[in-house]
Model the fold of this input.
Amino acid sequence: MSIAERAQQIVKEFELTPEQLNACVDHFIWATEHGLRHHTDLGMPMIPTYVTSIPTGKEKGTFLAADLGGTNFRVCSVNLHGDSTYALVHNKWPVPRELMSGKCDDFMGWLTDRLEEFLKEHHSEHYSQENCQWGDHLFKMGFTFSFPVDQTGMNRGTLIRWTKGFDIKDAVGKDVCQLFQSAINKRKLPVFVAALVNDTVGTLMSRSYTKAEEGRTLIGCIFGTGTNGAYSEKIKAIPKFNIVAHPEITSKIMVINTEWGSFDNRLKFIPSNRFDQELNLHTPNPGYHMFEKRISGMFLGELLRLCLVELQKDGLLFGAADRIDKTINALETPWSVDSSFPSKIHGDTTTELLGTESIVRQLLGYATTLEQRKAIQAIAKAIGRRGAHLSAVPLAGLILHTHALEKFEGNIDIGADGSVVEFYPHHEEMIREALRWTKIGDQENRITIGLARDGSGVGAALCALVA
Done:
């Protein structure tokens, strides 16, 4: 069998038919409605965020945002101009490693030190050097906290567990907003932590504010290293939310954090081939986030690497004589190539795929023939196409679930962020192809998809505004 024939066999393993796609969409709608009714472990928890209004672009004022996304801490000041534009300044600091597993008071004190440093640099007009006191001006701040929390209010959330290398044991089970606010109050800083923010919620808010064209922003989503989405839902369609316990909420809608990366963890509908299965076994969370493992930037490169390893084992690619750099062991090393590898190959339009030749030489250390490069590109395109087609599932599912196309005139807008949606070749085009396969059909042209940058900054500030 030639390498072209063998590659086509692998390509077929990544094909997704319209029938399979629609079955996924139908199941997504079921999972959405199930998660709105029940506190569930079936994959999509559908978390109420207590955000009950969406920006219009006319909002004004200066608000703060604090973003603890991982090993860096960032503080932003966002000045909303009221015309869908804004000005932003920010500072960023690496979190000292010793604080990542130390005492909670020390960690919160360090965050507050950085916040005070930022305020003195960018808002010194509210600080009196003579008596070392802040004036009466109070800043509202959104706090993007990218760790698992049980959110119980707009600015209330109990830490479930740490991830990303953190292990501050005496913070687990405590309200992270109250911990931060307590440290801020001790320092007598003029800051109120008004909102606890998920990054997808921030993306939805940022896009709603900044888009100038007509259309209702329904969904904010991330297609990057991971994937997730948030959307606005009618409160009466969230049976599990106890509205009686929250008399302060009088609005008719609430933003829901779907956590759709865990859609169909049981693999009843989303496709699963042997490359998917092998990848899953070598992740820190086998059996979880199964949807994410087919579409996100963290996994696309590894899927392609696994396919190329098989071609090498078949004797069709990367023989000993093709090795030009023996110091590179990426082909043999799991998780050694990221999504930029299939992305660049997918988008290669150079003569005789010389771009792919250069990429393979640089990252894997092997020479290739034109026939081999065509085979590699065919597989890369198949992986990227399936990922984009599957990315359409939650978008179509939420649009159909909310009946947005029937309820609202004009366009339905989606705000998106992340490296895959921004940089992967033809990603939006492939999503739109899949949307046309669904019950949305020709009305796909009423859906706009636009980049919504800096949800953790602008979006978090907007959450503080609407709090």
Remarks:
- The longest helix spans residues 370-402.
